[in-house]
Amino acid sequence: MKILIIGHKNHGKTTAAKFIADLVGLKYADSSWFCAERVVFPVLKDRYGYTTVEECYNDRDNHRAEWYELIASVNAHDPATLTRAILAENDIYCGLRNIREYEATWKVYDLILWIDASDTKPLEPSSSMTLTFDPSRMIKIDANGTDEDMYQNIRFALQVW
């Protein structure tokens, strides 16, 4: 089973991935961490004086558009490059943000979840997120309440699916 979890920053995507991994026994990759290790840190470490991948990762909100562009560059010639790399090691891809990558790869997923906390959290700009919710392909998970509420919403979605 391959699952894609998408949504805006800080809406609960990684929390959702952890819930699903625990519920169904799947392995997940947070795309920000995956790309920090392989793509972003090597390019930005000298520019911003990072000494560890974790330091780079923790500073990502200050450079979201730059991260978005670096990650998009991985997919420049083939928009499925990052998806293949993540899914080679994981069952759940958490955090895809680029419409070009999404359109090239959405069919490989058995389930696509859109994590939505837009009643309580801001949306991010198109400079770092070019996807929008598509009800014909995605199941929206309400993440505006507590983590327990989201957990129950995910459990329900998995049972219905």
Briefly, what is this?
The chain is of the alpha/beta class and 161 residues long. 48% of the residues lie in helices and 12% in strands.
Q: In total, how many beta strands?
A: 5
| Average predicted local confidence, pLDDT | 96
Rg of Cα set? 15 Å
- Strands of the biggest beta sheet: in what spatial order? 2-3-1-4-5
Total helical segments: 7
Low-confidence stretches: none
Helix content: 40-55%
Strand fraction: 5-15%
How is this structure best described in words?
- The chain is of the alpha/beta class.
- The protein has 7 helices and 5 strands, in the order E-H-E-H-H-H-H-E-H-E-E-H.
- It has helices at residues 13-24, 31-48, 53-58, 64-74, 81-89, 99-105, 147-160, and strands spanning 3-6, 28-30, 92-94, 111-116, 139-142.
- A 5-stranded parallel beta sheet has the order 2-3-1-4-5, with helices on both faces.
- Helix 1 packs across helix 7 and helix 2 crosses helix 4 (64-74).
- The two termini are 12 Å apart.
- The mean pLDDT is 96.
Give the topology.
Elements: E1 3-6, H1 13-24, E2 28-30, H2 31-48, H3 53-58, H4 64-74, H5 81-89, E3 92-94, H6 99-105, E4 111-116, E5 139-142, H7 147-160
Parallel strand pairs: 1-3, 1-4, 2-3, 4-5
Helix pairs in contact: 1-7, 2-4
